Amino acid sequence: MSISLSLAEQVRHDLTQGGVLSESLPDYEERAAQVEMAELVAQALESGQHAVIEASTGTGKSLAYLLPIVRSGKVAIISTANKNLQEQLFYKDIPFVQRHVKYFRAALIKGMGNYLCLDRFERENSELLPFQRSGAFDRLLQFLQEDATGPADGLRFDGDLDLTPFAIPGDLRARIAADSDQCAWSKCNWFGDCYVREMRQRAREAQVIVVNHTLLLLDAAMEGWLLPERDVVVIDEAHHLEEEATRAFTTTVSPGRVQSLLQQRRLRDTVNPALYQEAGQRNIAAWDRLAVTADPGFKNRVLLTRPFQEGLHLAEIIDALAEDLKYKRPENMDEKEEQLYEKLIKRARNLASDLRLVFAVEDLKRRVYYVERLSERGGQNNGLRQLSVSAAPLSVTELLQTQLFEKINTIATSATLAVGGDFSFFRRRVGALKNVAERVLPPTFDYPNHALLYLPRGLPEPKFGTDSKPYLEALAREMAQLVRASRGRAFLLFSSHRAMMEVYELIRDEVDFPLLLQGDSSRVELIKRFRTEGNAVLLGLKSFWEGVDIAGEALSLVVIDKLPFDPPDDPVHEARVKLMKEANEDWFNGYVLPQATLRLKQGLGRLIRTKDDRGVMAILDTRLHTKYYGSRVLAALPPARRTAKIEDVERFFQDAD
Question: Rounded distance, CA 489 to CA 533, Å?
């Protein structure tokens, strides 16, 4: 390759005829969008500007950003939405580039809790009596003794508990996984063999570091202390950025978190017994009182709008425990014990600080405070001790702008970032990026010939409450008719648990195909059964709207019950809308509608996953025809043929036979 070529020209040559990848990717003529994206990334790397790119499913986004990064020699952090996507990138896409383009060092980073702690494991092994040992523990012990590889050939275990070829029960995992609060780091006897240390060392030496959004955002808040130095950040699945940033910077406390601190043996043995007893009593009293004064009700959430004094008193006693620990430091501790003791003090201080933050309710212009009832399985006192209190940021734009976008070259990409070809909603929600190149790449798949978008007109508008029966019955009839036309092979996606359950009861005797209901099995098991059955119908909620990849005829129909607006009583959503109303902003068109449109695009994206896939997308929300905003939503959807006639759907499937 001539050194006179720019990086963009170099990656174009790599991806097209005669380039280094021409034999590995012979269909270069069908990958124009991938080539364009790779050039855009290359130009952004050379100019130092940001890039925001919407690239539809099938574009090959991973290769389009990996190739210019590797060719440039720059160090990159690539952030994805979850662990599954991290693993796909690290174990599939990166090795492809290493084999066919250029070898480079890469590292996968997950949170500490995903790795085995050898110190905790050895303590568990030595303290368990024979009758206390579980089969899972013995299997893990044998696995480690054999130095076994992970689920793919040639992959070493490297301490990642997600890579064991067998499931590890949650209670065992909690006892043996690494925990920052109980980590003595360099003072630990196992430090030389520590999986977390090795992971961090690999990351420091790597050119490409794969993380998830949570780690990236925590690193941003810590001003780059958590992750290695880098030249560029790639945010894949960037449509999750605001949601993940909100979650990452939400402070949450619960009675269990307090109790976990109080159960620490070193704390119990050191502090004043009367002080310790008072802390336990205040913990119980605070949460019992909160359940009375701020009952979440049947919706399981309620706003907290004024300071909660019992919670502030609890913060005071936890602070007192920290002070008592400081002044009653035991003598003759070794270095490891000293390290863990300091962490215990810090843990108590952090908990006291978080308790003050959530219970003081001081900054209603910047945060929303709410009480939430968690799952009551295994709860105490009729579930009252399963409450939690959170303080969530109303806006994450300032943090993202000052801690991320203003500091480093950033490339954001996803299949769903633009609304009607416009990125203004994304930029408003995550920070007004300056010096940014934007591009919506053309669809990779032939939607006009391979897909049909069904938009019936005769259904009643979505309605819930005491008079929702006619709507739900009409919805069930329409879904049953569609499923019969497709001969199963369908995803029925819902925006509410109640609608899903009502429709399930109404159609279970009306269709002759296997029905799979979210909640009956794990998500992984449901997807496995759906693929195996070949003609199944899966009824699912939010977790099935994205991140599910089922190619081929097994999935030929995706039906969405209604536009996926956020529930109006979601605390963060409600507070953000209220703030926009007070500022006389267009809260519906500027926030609520674009958000729902992007979710709708994600749901419909489950259908066409390869160039050979065919199928029908259906949205059973008549508001697309009757409301002024319907045309805006439709303009943002894939360019499939559209119809309001069920006969066209039936004919589509008949012609496909």
Answer: 9
Could you tell me if residue 368 is left (phi over 0), alpha (psi between -120 and 50 degrees) or otherwise beta? beta
What would you measure as the largest C-alpha separation in the chain, in angstroms?
Answer: 83
- Name the CA radius of gyration of the chain, rounded: 27
Residue 446: phi and psi, rounded to 5, are -85, 75
Q: Dihedral, CA atoms, 428, 429, 435, 440, nearest 10 degrees?
A: -90
Query: Cα dist. 454→372, 524, 644 in Å?
Result: 38, 29, 6
Contact 187, 338 (CB under 8 A): yes
Of 153-162, 254-263, 517-526, give the lowest mean pLDDT range. 153-162
CA–CA separation, 146 and 112 (whole Å):
24
pTM of the model: 0.89
CATH of 447-656, one of 3.40.50.1100, 3.30.1490.20, 3.40.50.300, 1.10.287.1080: 3.40.50.300
- Each residue of 619-651: pLDDT tens digit? 999 999 999 999 999 999 999 999 999 999 999
How high is the pLDDT of residue 448? 93
Burial class of residue 29 in the structure, from the number of CB atoms within 10 Å of its CB (0-12 exposed, 13-18 middle, 19+ buried): exposed
Instruction: Give me the pLDDT at residue 378, please.
Output: 39
Distance between CA atoms of 235 and 42, rounded to whole angstroms?
15
Dist CA 349 CA 327 (whole Å): 14
Mean pLDDT of 598-604: 91
CATH number of 251-393: 1.10.275
Cβ(102)–Cβ(70) below 8 Å? yes
Please tell me the chain's helix, strand, coil percentages from 3-state DSSP, rounded to the nearest 5.
50, 15, 35
Do the Cβ atoms of 364 and 305 come closer than 8 Å?
A: yes
DSSP letter assigned to residue 59 = S
Task: Write the CB contacts of 592 (distance below 8 Å, at least 6 apart in sequence).
Answer: 565, 566, 577
Residue 394 near residue 249 (C-beta atoms within 8 A): no
The ranges of the chain annotated as CATH 1.10.275 are: 251-393
Q: Which structure tokens are listed for 651?
A: 């004919």
Start and end residues for every CATH 3.40.50.300 domain found in the chain: 447-656
For 9, the 3-state DSSP assignment is: helix
Distance CA 353, CA 351 (A): 5
Q: Which helix (H) or strand (E) holds 462?
A: none
